[in-house]
Amino acid sequence: MIRNLLKRTVFLTLLLALCLFSTTSFAASAVELNAEADAALQVFYEEVGSASELASMSKGMLILPAVYKGGFLLGAEFGEGVLRINNRTVDYYNSSGLSLGLLAGVQKKSVILLFMTEDGLAQFRASQNWEIGLDGSVAVVKLGVGKEFDSTNLKSPIIGFVFGNKGLMANISLEGSKLTRIEKTE
Fold this sequence. Notes:
This protein is of the alpha+beta class. It has one domain (about 1-180). It contains four helices and six strands. Strands 1, 2, 3, 4, 5 and 6 form a six-stranded mixed sheet that branches. A hairpin with a 2-residue loop joins strand 1 (about 60-85) and strand 2.
């Protein structure tokens, strides 16, 4: 039992190291990543009431269509996304992170960060490696009755939405996620 746990921990640590220290991207191309981002954005608009109006008020949005998180006690996550300003992709990013705690299984989620102020967007773009909770705080919006969001977070400079979760995990926080600008080819 302990030997299996140790093997899993070592495997996940190596997987995490590969994700965190790799500058290559895992999506096949910028075209595919943009198509995945379009699909995630469509789901966001359909699932979250008033999302399109809120997105239209934002100065920019980071769309991470598929962030995978998995582990057993030690967890790792990785995903890729696009930064859009005025509905145009301007940069590509990957998201990676490590967590300890109550984890068991694998989860896929989509994450959308809305930058509601020019200053928040500028600080994000000025950083090559931006960590949520350290370099900037993100108000994660939780859905209420009728799939409407709690309006108390709407005054935050950066608003985060997490949706499309598959599988069970106790920890869905964005804290500690590191966002790194990457190069993409068509």
